[in-house]
Amino acid sequence: MAKGNSSGFHLMESLVAAKFITEKAQDVHINQEGIKELASHVMTFLMDNIEDFYILTYTFLRPKAYPVEEDSKKADWLFVLHTLNFSLWNPKGTKQWTVNGSEGYCALCFAIKRAIDEKTPIWDPKYYTRMTQSEFEHIFRSDDGETSIPLIHERLRILREVGKVLLKKYRGTFVECIKSSGSDADKLVKLLFNEFGSYRDEAIYGGFKVRFHSKARSLVSDIWIECSKEQPKFKLDTKEMISTMFIDYRILLVLLHFKVLLYSDVLVNRFENSNEPLEHGCREEIEIRGCSLFAANKVCKEVQKIIMHYIEEYPILNTKAFNIPILVDNYLFKFISKEIEEEYMKQEPFHYVRTVHY
């Protein structure tokens, strides 16, 4: 097993790390008034769609482009999808990679669905560990036939790498990883971290090692929701749900739009005047991620406060099925899907990240 630990640094994970980063951040800050406003919009969103209560609070909204396999292959194509879901945006002023008219994460979903519809076994490591560059390029071809998926050589290398681990240790299927974790969500996140390099999402900040597990948590959350619908044996036990908003990191634009996050003038000027991507692990990138994650958690707590005023009128809000982090993520995802157009990309200080981790 690949070792994820290294000596010399104390370790902080996810929300503990996010809180620490928020307290130390120099260029990113959380605005409590923005938290309250966003929480209010989330609650309005729920009340306006109360007939869809169980969908919005127990199922993650995902692109319609998600493949619809109804068997065990679903776990394997979800693994491929999330493994390849990183750095999908090109800097402003350059042509974006598009599939079926969509960009970024949605384009990746469409490309994988297209491959499955064309009977290409993109879910099978026996296939993709031997995949040629030309085959990979064909699967992820763009609408214009010219633009390539960003970091195309890195993606193929990673896909081959994770496939070899599955073939060597997990009988060639991600299902065995789920079984090895004892169907425990937190253990599965750690298994992904330990076994697959592109899921080893950590950096050093303020003398501490911080881990976010962004891609791992998004994958595990999708396995938790998508696979358990048809296969109860995939039902994962999870002790704590936290935001999966980095499944599409444009969602940060929503936090900026509602002024939940505030950037320093230095950071705003950098994003407005330079397309140079942030590197994974740099101070600014860690502050953006840490503060975003902690802000999403604060929005959840604020929504919980608002709910208390509605429970008597809407008893359904007191049900165990009400998962607030899922509701908040669904609002953010819905907002980015319907409201964030190219104009928002111009208005907000959007940053680009060069990383394989999200």
Structure description:
With 358 residues, this protein is mainly alpha-helical. It has a domain at 17-60 and 241-358. It is 51% helix and 7% strand. The chain is built from 16 helices and 9 strands. It has helices at 14-24, 32-48, 53-58, 73-83, 104-117, 125-128, 133-139, 152-169, 175-180, 185-195, 214-230, 252-257, 265-273, 283-307, 324-338, 342-347; strands at residues 10-13, 28-30, 98-99, 102-103, 202-205, 208-211, 261-263, 278-279, 353-354. The strands form 4 sheets. It has a 3-stranded mixed β-sheet with strand order 1-6-5, covered by helices on one side. A two-stranded antiparallel sheet has the order 2-7. A two-stranded antiparallel sheet has the order 3-4. The two termini are 22 Å apart. Its EC number is 3.2.2.-. InterPro entries: Q_salvage.
What would a concise description of this structure say?
Belongs to the QNG1 protein family. The chain is mostly helical. It has a domain at about 15-60 and about 240-358.
